[in-house]
Amino acid sequence: MEKKNIIRKIIRESINSLFDEERIPNPEADEFVKRKENFLGSHTYGENLGDLDKMYVAYSYGEQHPLYVWIDEDEFQSLRKYEQDNLTTEGLDGGMRHLYNDEKADKDERGITKQGGPWFYNEKPYYVRDKKGKLKVNKWTEKHLKDLKPNEKAQARETSYLTRLIDDFKKKYKIKDNSHTNLKPGEK
Question: Which ranges constitute the DSSP H helices of the chain?
């Protein structure tokens, strides 16, 4: 058993050195998402887009499937002026929650001024093709959604809504690519 653990450790360290970033186990990644810190997990990653502290996205398998999106309140109002009054206050757990989950505060533990803003989660499943070519729900992405959940105050949105919001933000700030690379199903 000890040889097996040594081999696993060597493989894990080798993989981490390729990415220049330590991999975080997905069940522990929720803390990174809550703090809006970049991380690289197993088939997941989170990123503060453009390092602007105005939008944070946690992805499953890549940019095609954002799991959670946080956007600064002022930024959200500038990108989605027409939508401000249409937001629900129903949380991820079905309970009534306040839209802006973050309390305004002077500084967080990293010295960054905390900003309020809504969290959104992707309510649509991620589909992959099985060996016969049929579409099926990727069960791992459903697990990623549970593992990376930042809080109970996220608003449900479809994939297309979240990707449009992210694209509008990137266009506004001329952000071409995420710092992390997309991960296809089966890659770690």
Answer: 2-19, 26-34, 73-79, 139-147, 159-172
SS3 content of the chain, % helix, strand, coil (to 5): 35, 20, 45
**Mean pLDDT score, 3-20:** 62
Instruction: Assign 136 to helix, strand or coil.
Output: strand
In a domain, 185, yes or no: no
180 touches 36 (CB < 8 A) = no
| Structure-block tokens of residue 111 | 């010295």
Are 12 and 4 contacting, i.e. CB atoms less than 8 angstroms apart?
no
pTM, to two decimals: 0.74
Please give the Cα distance from 163 to 80 (Å, whole number). Answer: 14
Look at residue 168 and tell me if it is in a domain.
yes
